[in-house]
Amino acid sequence: MKTLVTGGAGFIGSHLVERLINDGHQVIALDDLSSGRWENLATVADAPGLQTVQADITDKQAIAPHFIGVDWVFHLAGKADIVPSIEQPDIYYAANVQGTFNVLECSRAANIKRLVYAASSSCYGIPDTYPTPEDAETRSQYPYALTKYLGEEMVLHWAQVYGLPALSLRLFNVYGPRSRTTGAYGAVFGVFLAQKLAGKAYTVVGDGKQSRDFTYVTDVADAFTTAAASHVSGEIFNVGSGHHYSINELVGHLGGDVEYIPKRPGEPDCTFADVSRIHAQLGWQAKVDFSTGVGHMLESIELWREAPLWDAGSIHQATKSWFKYLGDN
Q: What is the C-alpha separation between 256 and 250, in angstroms, rounded?
């Protein structure tokens, strides 16, 4: 297939590009490089089937020509992180909503055969049910979650109204090598690995008993390719590990001292995907267990040598907006 991956130089996108190239597909990796890096594609940089394009999905005219002749579109480009979305909702709306609209319209005009959207499990907010099924109520707690959910709603609407063969994957706590190491305070693995390299204590939020459905990035790439090869359209699927693990368990795997910092508003005590639907309809399930995945992270720990080193004080400063706007929710 001829494929296009928006956000193809990013964390998940680069692993998906690798998978597609290794499976023998042609790939256009499109990225504005605001958070992605072409270096993430080093292992396939010389592959004859790879084309790289620097373009912004908010610029429809710039991206439209690259959809012509494409069979599969994987839409992973967008803005992530909680605090920046609170402070700059306009940027998040432009990328995650308007950008998704542009991708959908370019896909429709090019008559593509399949679009798979990278949605976020953050749309569930603080759910009532664990494991959480796809029909659970959506309770977006901050603009990042909301804008990703609005993008998903458009994907499903384009499938319904225009017959665009499209589906949405709600990703749960993806981790692995190449996860973003710069910018805003974000994912726990990047924070902890930089702290481990520096010999500093891990800044654990709350009591560390909160658990997350940590899902290894190659399993996520596999979910995307499985979804693209299916004939299902207009559906939402959770993509999770089938388990959940506490932050204290993660610290136990990494080894080292702990410093506890205040629990944050709007965060669930647990994320845990009900993956029965994707297993039943697509035959997909995660393969990489947590201890193996953490081992892979430790093997690649040098990737976090230049990552920001966070401590309780800098995290307090970085998350002021979080507490200010979400504290009463």
A: 11
